[in-house]
Amino acid sequence: MPLVRYRKVVILGYRSVGKTSLAHQFIDGEFLECYDPTVESTYNKMLMLGKDEFHLQLVDTAGQDEYTILPHSFTIGIHGYVLVYSVTSLKSFQVVKSLHSKLYESRGKTSRQVKTDEGRKLADSWGAVFLESSAKENQMTQGVFTRIIEEIDRVDNSYGEQRGCILM
Ligand SMILES: Nc1nc2c(ncn2[C@@H]2O[C@H](COP(=O)(O)OP(=O)(O)OP(=O)(O)O)[C@@H](O)[C@H]2O)c(=O)[nH]1
Ligand SMILES: [Mg+2]
Prior knowledge:
Distance between the termini: 18 Å
Order of helices and strands: EHEEEHHH
Bound molecules: guanosine-5'-triphosphate, magnesium ion
Radius of gyration: 20 Å
Helix content: 25-40%
Oligomer: single chain
CATH topology of the largest domain: Rossmann fold
Structural class: alpha/beta
Number of domains: 2
Shape: elongated
Number of helices: 4
């Protein structure tokens, strides 16, 4: 069974630029004429891209401006951002530039010291399965534990009675 990969994406941008409309068009396939300012909402969608299955968590935010301090929940454990501006608002275009700078700065502060690839190489050298996860991400964490159970089962089936121990 292929592992479902979890992706958390945050939509940012000045107010009333169409963040919710984009999310709604993507999730429900329709355009909303009405305007109802967002506080914050999260949409979940499973999608297949080629052979890969993804669980997307899409966070639609309240509009920001250049003075907004981005909360940690928007900067930690996020895989990607969609920065939205409106072609009819120069102000909203300035705001995406300011948001980009803030995100860039906050990236520097999260001090990763071990690259994903280094982890993978170490696991490879042990002949172990490698998955990188954060306890903040439910889906990947589920993946770690379902994978170890699958691996134990796989080895059990291939060696019959001989019992081993699986390392991840
Ligand atoms: N013409 C046009 N109108 C749009 C488009 N996208 C959104 N709108 C309209 O713009 C208004 C605001 O759209 P929202 O999607 O609610 O904007 P938002 O960025 O989520 O706003 P906040 O939640 O307040 O930050 C709504 O009336 C939408 O119908 C678009 O691509 N074209
Ligand atoms: Mg909105």
